[in-house]
User: What shape does this take?
Amino acid sequence: MKSESLESRAGKVLSPALSHYTNLEIEKGRGAYLISKDGKKYLDFACGIAVTNLGHCHPKVVAAAVKQSENLIHACAGIVYYEANILLAEKLAEICPAGLNMSFFCQSGAEAVEGAIKLAKYVKNKPGIIAFEGSFHGRTLGALSVTTSKQKYRDRYEPLLPNIFIAPYSKENSLVEVEKILKSNRIAGIIVEPIQGEGGYIIPSKEFLSGLRNLCNKYEALLIFDEVQTGFGRTGKMFASEAFGVYPDVMTVAKSIASGFPLGAVIAKDTIMKQWSPGAHGSTMSGNPVSCAAALATIDVIEKEKLPEYALKMGGYLKAKLDKLKKDHSSIVEVRGMGLMLAVELKDNAAAKKVMEGCLKDGLILISCGTRDQVIRFIPPLIITKEQIDTAVNIFEEALKELS
Assistant: This one.
């Protein structure tokens, strides 16, 4: 008798609120591949939504997590001090730009955004936050209040946080609109993705980001960069802020920081963070020892193998191939991105869905983004090879041909 599928079993016990890009049933992951229960290998160009920057089950990360698990799994950083937690905070202070040298750990990007919003409000003692059209910062109520990439994320949850102001993202009038809001309201902070992720992999101008920096200085607001998707080498720099030469007061990170172990962080200058009084924020699982050990191993590999530089090189190689496809396929509207954070925008979401389904059938996992899900993301692990990129692009091209 054929055993019941995982999809069928999940339908009986897991909430349908979590939607699925595919119905693949995966048994394990190795490097750039996910391997299904029947042994088929899939090139993973989704990376668990930009999480597995080192590929799946990197041996150094696995070893670090196992070793830490044998010594201490949990004790609560709010009760005792332990090495992994402090070591990671010290390492982040070393690698983060522009004096961002003090961390508050949490479990996810949404939690990190919640913390950053609370930090800005607390330190500045002002109620207002500015966010941007097309932004994505998470699904918890505070993070959702500054998320506008899709209306369905907000439906039936309103009213959300008050005093949230939404401005246009990197458009001709953006800075004018932001300054109007700053002049008329008591604004604690501006939260922005240095490259929009779920909104469609939109790269802003340097002038836009530097303009935000100047406005925050002028009106005494904190500039918060959400680097949850862009951080840890994805864009060709350790952090996207370095690619633009524009630096925030507060930064949120998560996703790839620990290669898939649940971990996030609010990182700020100590002059800001020390104003956050004891007990003003908290978390039982803050700085979990195993997650911190995995993060330390992840950062070590990124640095020793110079993966940001490699991502820039491989990203250039992949983008050139995608640009060539654009010349040959009218269904492609635009190719854009930075490093190994690339996207191909198609004419509509029906086309994107059909292409992704064709790719999946031939062993390539891709996922969508964009306000209408018309954009296909190319976010392979930073260890990807030219041969694997060639294979992926060939599969993608065959799927594109099916559109015509």
Q: What stands out?
A: The chain has two domains: 59-304, 306-380. The mean pLDDT is 97. Residues 306-380 form a domain with the Aspartate Aminotransferase, domain 1 fold (CATH 3.90.1150.10). The first strand starts at residue 26 and ends at 30.
